[in-house]
Design goal:
single chain; 330 residues; alpha/beta; Rossmann fold; three-stranded antiparallel β-sheet; 14 strands; 37% helix; 21% strand
């Protein structure tokens, strides 16, 4: 049931992937003034094919965020999220929603405008902005000095990542933020990073220079929701403190105020490796390391087990976020 408040806290959530919608749904139910800033560096699957063939920003993460913040009937949601079977030749693996975003982007000559129009059509409660108005290419440099370009290629090498950066896909130039993104960050009461892949969902947004600078300069509480599991080719053997160290290293200064970490153990053998093959083991805890990074640590049971997968419990996380935002701003 939705909670209604006289004064809605302005919460900006930055990221991508499957973790972001879980938090957004919880925030929507708590009547937050939500802005989602979504990565546009995805170049795999349906999004990768469409961004090349139609020359648009990748629609997949934007699609999932729109659905998370929409109050449209379940049947419409299921249709928007429907993915064609692999045997369907040309339409294989495309979702209806991705195709609709591609069509509107072409009609309006702008993915940004397409998302704003769909937000109205889908009765989205909040604001959804791509981090940049054109697709971005994510580049990674490994600790052995080698490098690779393309989000979908980075984890495949199973090397330790040193740094990532982004460029415009169309001209390889320095990217700029989409309209209203910086204003939303400046006006935020809280900025939430994640949950999501550290190098391929969160950092691509912060590596747009103006976005990273705005987050660092913000007076809002900056909260990092640490992943529950390590990820193959990205954060293998990482502790929660190492996640934060990577963020601080990339932006050149400490800026994360609070870290939410799950302390509930995942049952042995629970995860289905045929479905969730990129996740390895639980992230280990280094509470002293987090404090050394200048972070307040909130550790609790944020775990939700579902269909052989490990997820954050959106309601528990959002309850903690609201305790934080009302404790620091109200």
């Amino acid at each position: 049931m939705k909670t209604y408040r006289i004064r809605k806290p302005k919460i900006v959530v930055i990221g991508g992937g499957t973790g972001l919608p879980v938090i957004l749904k919880g925030l929507r139910n708590q009547s937050a003034d939500i802005t989602a800033i979504v990565t546009v560096a995805d170049d795999g699957g349906s999004s990768g094919i469409l961004r090349q063939s139609v020359n648009i920003a990748p629609p997949g993460d934007l699609r999932n965020v729109l659905v998370a913040l929409s109050d449209m009937p379940k049947l419409y949601e299921d249709l928007f999220q429907y993915r064609f079977h692999e045997s369907d030749d040309f339409l294989a693996n495309h979702t209806i929603g991705n195709l609709i975003i591609a069509a509107l982007s072409e009609m309006r000559d702008s993915t940004y405008e397409a998302i704003q129009l769909l937000s109205q059509i889908m009765h989205v409660d909040g604001h959804v902005y791509p981090a940049s108005e054109c697709s971005l290419t994510l580049h990674a440099t490994y600790t052995d000095g080698t490098s690779v370009s393309g989000e979908s290629h980075i984890a495949k090498n199973r090397k330790t990542i040193d740094r990532v950066h982004v460029t415009n896909t169309c001209d390889n130039q320095k990217p700029v933020p989409a309209r209203k993104v910086i204003t939303a960050i400046k006006n935020a009461d809280m900025i939430v990073l994640g949950p999501g892949s550290l190098f391929t969902s969160i950092l691509p947004n912060l590596m747009i220079q103006e976005i990273g600078e705005a987050v660092c300069q913000s007076e809002a509480e900056v909260v990092y929701i640490c992943n529950i599991m390590t990820q193959k080719g990205e954060t293998e053997h990482f502790s929660d403190a190492q996640h934060v160290k990577v963020l601080h290293k990339h932006l050149g200064q400490p800026f994360v105020d609070t870290v939410l970490v799950n302390t509930e153990p995942v049952p042995d053998g629970y995860m289905d490796p045929t479905i969730y093959d990129e996740y390895l083991v639980q992230v280990c805890h280094d509470f002293q390391g987090l404090r050394d990074e200048g972070c307040r640590v909130i550790s609790a049971d944020f775990l939700k087990l579902s269909n052989g997968g490990v997820f954050h419990d959106g309601e528990k996380v959002v309850d903690e976020l609201f305790r934080l935002v009302f404790g620091t701003k109200y």
